[in-house]
Each structure stands twice: as structure tokens, then as C-alpha cells.
């Protein structure tokens, strides 16, 4: 409910969307461009007043054209448009520059859920007589409940054919801040958002619901527990203004420069990430963005087995960006920027303060050394070192009960860290148990944890797949691994065990899939074979490590896992294809798994002499705990990217004290 009100109120801020025309080929679509797209489609009788748009996004120019582009050059601006039509959904390519529709055809799949469809499902479910009757059995009137439409996956049954389904459980309308504290358990509707009708209401039996509202505002917490004593504030401050420069979508800071935009599906997109090496700008990453977020729950019961969300492809991380708060989400000295996407009608919709940019001294040394041999009683020599500062570009998307922070953190030593911060609220189900001593506790907690009286949070996973198109100095790169393997030692050696580095280069896409394990240490190296680096090395960057997780999943027979089989490996590599942007496929809604990263690589294309795209899945298993409730502490997961024989020495050497 709050989410829908936020989106509706945000739409009123359209006046904020107006801005200058795009200055770079990879800039996001402007408010004026969204309006022009609408005009072009109407002018060519492709769209009318009843047309709705699940997705409008920039259709990027050919990569070669972007790399050859210089300020002042002109490249046609185009958009890919998914829209409702008499045949269901159609896909058009609109040439904004020329004012034409270049192509228009029925889509092969279903785009993400429309805001209008959310509202129809919410109202339809709550207004159905069987839902009203189910609520009445639980002592509730329709006005005392709100229903939350959720994507129902695809389980390859007849029900999912020629349909567009959501499953709609309900909650008691809260008196305070927590919308998820009182689930109406055992009751949900199956709603076809395409046909705008409730197919059926499922009622598996009344479960006595929780009584506690579990609010989490400071005022609500103070009524429950004494707040901590007031303390002296610890703040990040920056005197004299920022050291970074923002020019439209272009940011320069310290040794880095890059462009950014927001798209409705992946959220923040970072492009043309270059690093300054002793006065020479060198390319590192052509583009990086979130590819998909997969959150499968591990509860096989009727009301939960289908909860296997593809948060980016089904809902949209850009659509659900939430305004950031100074002093909480970002330091007060941060620069806050709006994001402009399209609403259901194709009109520009502004999300204020959707991006924050800031630099911070992280309180750690970038490097240090204390030289004991330089010390004398008369002249003690302090440690030599430099303070570490980083640039952070941050967004936060609220997808249902979860909030996900996405950071791109740039370091003064040439490293790039992608951070994902998961916070928000656990998804909970109502149960009879109030304690683990209750007779019902064993059954109630078979697939989760009792985190509060009458509330179980189900076990689940979070997988975040990132598409990282490295262009180390140029698009044609090598991909290889550096494996830590046992060294072969002479029998006469006093040492009987050591390790050495074995360099391996996969020839094809199928060979270039990897799992990470601490028992089999391995680093992933992307390098430029055409450039002789300092000291004769092949200059490169590497994915040093990241947070990963694997489950005992059946990727051939379990429908949600077949649709998201890219989580079987953490690292994949493909030959660059501009149409392959999302690991879960072009259309995630009720997808069948045939158009995914795990299927693309079966072509087993050669990686030799090719422009290679690397895909990385960070993830974690979430076994809920009482400390997660009523709101979770932020859990950070990383993708760690660092230079490897790219620079002549430590780039942080030149930091001033």
C-alpha cells in the first residue's frame, strides 16, 4: 500500500524531469525523449490513449559507434518499447532522432508487471466474495486488510499457459509502521492480471494471527524498549565541497571517470569506466549493471512454494528506487540526484534523490609501514602512510519487504568494489507457536525460524547477478584463471608442500563457467593481449573474490531453478552480444528457462580474439534469526575487482597526506 502511494505521488513530480538533451550516447532517456516516444507511437497509430508500457529503455548504439564517438558527434537516439496491444504485448524500436518506428512486432514473452496490474490485482483479490468470506472467518473486514500482489513464477502447468498470473496474500492493515507484521495466513488469491480476474481463492485453514504490530519507528521502539543513552554524534563531513565533478551523467574523481544512468529494469547502469594511469586514460569496464536478482524461498507449502521471485526482471529495480535520506542512507554532504523513468502511460516519472554520490575517508590507511630499523632513541620515526578515501555511487530499491542498496565504490588504488546491502523486513508467515516449547513449534519451524510469537520467517536465498563487460584497454580481451595448485617439489627439498600459480585459459564459453571455493582458490583475470604492460606483463584486471553461495538444487527438473540456472556457477563468460543483457532472459515474467545465460553458453562459442562479457553472481543463504526482526541489519555482499599488473606500481603511492 505504502509502495503504491509512493509511486503515485512520485508521478506528480513530473515537472522535475525536464532537463538537457542527452550529452553521451549511453545517457538515460530524458523526460523530453519519453514524451517524444509517446508522440511518435501515437503519430504512427501504433499506440493510443489505452496503451500501457511495461518498459521503455534506451536502445544503445552499436558498441563500436559508442567507442568512436566524440563530444559533438551525432548518433541516433533510439528506444526499445514494450507495450500492450490487441495481441497481448508488442515490442517496438523507436528512432527518437528521426521520429520513426523502425520495427513493431508481437513479443515472444511477457514484460515486467505494470503498476496498473498491481493495483488491479490488489483490488480484485480484496473484492472477491471468497476472499471476503475468508477474511470474515478470521474476524476481519475487507477494509481491515490490504493485499500484496506477488509474481507466482512458472511451474510449467496448464495454469501458466495463456495466462499472466500473480498470487495475492493479504495482511492486516497496520496501526503503525510495519505492514508485514500481521499476515493473514492460509489465504490468498490467484489472479490473472492479463484477464483482470480472480481465478480462485485458496484457503488452507485459519491460523491465529500475531497480536503485536512490531513497529520500528523511534517512537514505536521507545514504547517497547528504553532507547540507548544519547551520544555525541559521529558524522562524515567534507569541508570546502566535493573533489568529484558531475557534468550531466559524467563523473570524474581522483583517478576515475565514468558515465551513469538509471534504467527501469536493472536500476543503476555504469558505463565507460576509465582510470588515469600516469596521465593516460585507460579503459577498464565498458559497462556494468545488475542483471537479475533471484530470491527463492525454501518453504514447500501451498502458500509459499511459488515464492521464487526474479526481482529485477519481474518488478524492476529502477521502478522501485526509493528516495535516499541524508544522514541515514548517505552522508549529509552527498550529492543527491533524481532518476527519470517511464510510468505505465509512457510519461516521464521522476524519483527524487534516487542516487547519491559522495566521497569519504573510510578511517583506514590506504597503505602504511613502520620501519623498526629506522628508529633511534634520539629520532623516533613515525609510520609512513596515507589515508584511504573512496567514491561511492549508491541507490536503494525497495522490492516488497526487502530494501537493497547497490553501491559502486571506487578506490584510489585502482580497485572497484560492487556492494549489495540487503536490509528491510523478513517475509513472515503466521503460525500457532509462540515459543519453541509449544507442541506445534517443530512443524511450524520445519522450513524457517520462529522469530517472534506467532511469526515464522522462511529460509530463503538471495542471488545478485551482475553483467560486467570488461574492456581492459580495448574490447578484445583474454579471460583466464589463476589457480592455486600444489607445487611439484624435488624429493630432496626440505619443504614437502607448497603452492604455485597455474594459469589456465578456457577456449570456449562452456569451459568458462566456474564455482568458487576456499578449498580450490582461484582468481579470474581479464587482460589485454595486444598491449605489452610494464615489465612485459599482459595488463589486466581480476575478480579477486566475492560473496557466493550454492544450493542443492535440481536445475533440470525444478522449474524455478531451470528459469534461473545461471546460479549454478558464480562466474560465466560469453561473447559480447548487445541483446544479452539479463541473465534471466529478455522476459522474466513466467519465463520457461529457454532464454537465459545458462542456455546461451550452450552455443559454446570460442572466446579467442573476442569481446568477452563476464557475469558474476554474488549471493547468500538467509537462515532467519530473531535478530532480523522487526527490521534487519544491513548485510553487505561484494564483488571485488582489482588491477593485476595493470599499473607500474601501487597507484595509491601518490596520495597526499
From TrEMBL:
Residues 1-23 form the signal peptide. Its EC number is 1.4.3.-. Keywords: Copper, Metal-binding, Oxidoreductase, Signal, TPQ. InterPro entries: Cu_amine_oxidase, Cu_amine_oxidase_C, Cu_amine_oxidase_C_sf, Cu_amine_oxidase_N-reg, Cu_amine_oxidase_N2, Cu_amine_oxidase_N3. Pfam families: Cu_amine_oxid (PF01179), Cu_amine_oxidN2 (PF02727), Cu_amine_oxidN3 (PF02728). Topaquinone (TPQ) is generated by copper-dependent autoxidation of a specific tyrosyl residue. Belongs to the copper/topaquinone oxidase family. This is Amine oxidase. It comes from Shinella lacus. The lineage of its organism: Bacteria, Pseudomonadati, Pseudomonadota, Alphaproteobacteria, Hyphomicrobiales.
Amino acid at each position: 500500500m505504502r509502495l503504491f502511494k509512493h509511486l503515485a505521488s512520485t508521478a506528480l513530480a513530473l515537472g522535475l524531469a525536464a532537463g538537457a538533451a542527452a550529452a553521451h550516447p549511453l545517457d538515460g532517456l530524458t523526460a523530453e525523449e519519453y514524451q517524444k516516444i509517446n508522440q511518435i507511437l501515437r503519430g504512427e497509430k501504433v499506440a493510443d490513449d489505452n496503451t500501457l508500457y511495461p518498459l521503455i529503455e534506451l536502445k544503445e548504439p552499436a558498441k563500436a559507434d559508442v567507442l568512436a564517438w566524440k563530444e559533438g558527434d551525432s548518433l541516433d537516439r533510439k528506444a526499445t518499447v514494450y507495450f500492450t496491444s490487441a495481441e497481448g504485448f508488442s515490442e517496438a524500436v523507436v528512432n527518437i532522432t528521426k521520429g520513426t518506428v523502425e520495427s513493431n512486432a508481437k513479443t515472444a514473452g511477457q514484460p515486467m508487471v505494470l503498476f496498473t496490474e498491481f493495483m488491479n490485482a490488489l483490488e480484485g483479490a480484496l473484492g472477491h466474495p471468497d476472499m471476503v468470506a475468508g477474511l470474515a472467518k478470521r474476524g476481519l473486514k475487507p477494509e481491515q486488510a490490504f493485499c500484496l500482489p506477488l509474481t507466482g513464477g512458472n511451474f510449467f502447468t496448464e495454469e501458466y499457459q495463456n495466462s499472466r498470473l500473480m498470487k495475492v496474500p493479504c495482511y492486516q492493515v497496520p496501526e503503525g509502521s510495519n505492514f508485514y507484521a500481521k499476515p493473514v495466513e492460509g489465504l490468498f488469491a490467484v489472479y490473472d492480471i492479463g484477464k483482470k480476474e480472480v481465478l480462485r481463492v485458496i484457503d488452507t485453514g485459519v491460523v491465529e494471527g500475531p497480536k503485536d504490530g512490531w513497529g520500528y519507528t523511534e517512537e514505536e521502539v521507545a514504547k517497547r524498549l528504553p532507547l540507548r543513552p544519547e551520544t555525541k554524534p559521529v558524522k562524515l563531513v567534507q569541508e570546502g565541497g566535493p573533489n568529484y565533478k558531475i557534468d550531466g551523467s559524467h563523473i570524474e574523481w581522483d583517478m576515475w571517470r565514468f558515465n551513469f544512468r538509471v534504467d527501469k529494469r536493472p536500476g543503476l547502469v555504469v558505463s565507460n569506466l576509465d582510470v588515469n594511469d600516469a596521465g593516460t586514460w585507460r579503459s577498464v569496464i565498458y559497462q556494468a549493471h545488475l542483471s537479475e536478482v533471484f530470491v527463492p524461498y525454501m518453504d514447500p507449502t501451498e502458500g509459499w512454494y511459488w515464492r521464487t521471485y526474479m526481482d529485477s526482471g519481474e518488478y524492476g529495480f529502477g521502478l522501485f528506487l526509493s528516495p535516499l535520506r541524508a544522514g541515514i542512507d548517505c552522508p549529509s554532504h552527498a550529492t543527491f540526484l533524481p532518476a527519470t523513468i517511464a510510468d505505465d502511460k509512457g510519461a516521464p516519472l521522476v524519483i527524487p534523490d534516487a542516487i547519491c554520490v559522495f566521497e569519504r575517508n573510510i578511517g583506514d590507511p590506504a597503505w602504511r609501514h613502520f620501519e623498526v630499523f629506522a628508529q633511534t632513541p634520539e629520532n623516533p620515526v613515525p609510520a609512513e602512510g596515507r589515508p584511504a578515501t573512496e567514491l561511492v555511487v549508491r541507490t536503494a530499491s525497495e522490492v516488497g519487504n526487502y530494501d537493497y542498496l547497490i553501491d559502486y565504490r571506487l578506490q584510489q588504488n585502482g580497485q572497484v568494489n560492487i556492494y549489495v546491502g540487503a536490509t528491510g523486513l523478513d517475509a513472515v508467515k503466521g503460525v500457532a507457536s509462540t515459543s519453541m516449547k509449544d507442541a506445534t513449534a517443530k512443524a511450524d519451524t520445519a522450513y524457517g525460524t520462529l522469530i517472534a510469537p506467532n511469526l515464522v520467517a522462511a529460509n530463503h536465498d538471495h542471488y545478485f547477478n551482475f553483467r560486467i563487460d570488461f574492456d581492459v584497454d580495448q574490447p578484445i580481451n583474454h579471460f583466464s584463471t589463476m589457480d592455486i595448485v600444489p607445487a611439484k617439489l624435488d624429493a630432496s627439498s626440505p619443504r614437502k608442500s607448497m603452492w604455485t600459480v597455474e594459469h589456465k585459459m578456457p577456449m570456449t564459453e562452456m569451459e568458462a563457467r566456474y564455482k568458487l571455493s576456499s578449498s580450490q582458490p582461484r582468481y579470474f583475470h581479464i587482460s589485454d593481449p595486444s598491449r605489452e604492460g610494464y615489465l612485459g606483463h599482459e595488463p589486466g584486471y581480476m575478480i579477486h573474490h566475492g560473496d557466493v553461495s550454492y544450493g542443492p538444487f535440481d536445475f533440470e527438473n525444478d522449474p524455478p531453478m531451470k528459469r534461473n540456472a545461471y546460479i549454478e556457477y558464480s562466474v560465466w563468460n560469453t561473447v559480447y552480444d548487445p541483446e544479452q543483457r539479463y541473465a534471466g532472459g529478455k522476459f522474466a515474467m513466467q519465463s520457461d528457462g529457454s532464454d537465459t545465460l545458462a542456455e546461451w553458453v550452450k552455443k559454446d562459442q570460442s572466446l579467442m580474439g573476442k569481446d568477452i562479457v563476464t557475469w558474476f553472481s554474488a549471493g547468500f543463504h538467509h537462515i532467519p534469526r530473531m535478530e532480523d526482526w522487526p527490521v534487519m541489519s544491513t548485510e553487505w555482499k561484494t564483488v571485488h575487482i582489482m588491477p593485476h599488473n595493470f599499473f607500474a606500481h601501487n597507484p595509491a603511492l601518490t596520495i597526499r597526506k
